[in-house]
Structure formats: C-alpha cells, structure tokens
Amino acid sequence: MSEVDLRELVAALKHDLAKYVAWRSANYPEDAWRGPLQDDFAASLQADVLRTKGDLSAWQVWDEAAAQLGEPLPHAELEEVAAAVDVLRGHEEALRAGNRALADARGSIRQAQSTIRSQLRDLHRRLAR
Length: 129
Description:
Layout: H1 3-19, H2 30-34, H3 39-50, H4 58-69, H5 76-90, H6 92-97, H7 100-128
Helix pairs in contact: 1-4, 1-7, 4-5, 5-7
C-alpha cells in the first residue's frame, strides 16, 4: 500500500470508526458509566458499537480496512486499534443483550472506544505531516 493510500485509509478510519464508535455514548455523564444501566445509555452504546457505520459494527468497519492494510499492520497505532476492536468484538453478546453483562462491560468498552479514537487521531496527525 502506498503512503498516500495509507493516509487516505487512516483518514477514513478516523472518520468512520473513531468518530462514530463513541458518537453518542461519549456525551453521557460519569454516572452512566458506573451506576445502574440506563436504557437510553445502553441504546446509545449499542448504536455506537453495533451500528458504527450504517449497519456495520465497529469490528466490521475495522475488518474491511484491515483487509486492505494486510499483515503485519504498518504502524503500532493500528496494532492498538486492532486490539481495542477485538475487545469490542468480545463484548458483542453483551452489547446485543443490553443487560447486566453490558453493565459489567461498560468500563472495558469505554477504554476500547478511547483507544480507537486516540490512536487513529494520533496516527492521522503524524501521517498528515
């Protein structure tokens, strides 16, 4: 993959994955992340992760991009994103159920969302220089 193609793919990931993986849930106060699971918060978290881009989940968006990137991934930030996406993928059942399992997974999901956002932001900035 050329450097230009990589830059474009990372820019697309920054928009399609990093922006929307926490689009709604990031705006909730701290008590939504720690207290009893609120229905509206659960719905926001589900939408962010399970429908990150249209009907595609966060891992489906990532998998499409990763197929273009090939192995090994060309930057450490992308390895971090891959690991964070795997965390989200591992919580698919809890996300779909929206029950106590989702309440228990909130912290892990939040950390994965944060990692995806920060790593893609940082890589995009570095590649744009």
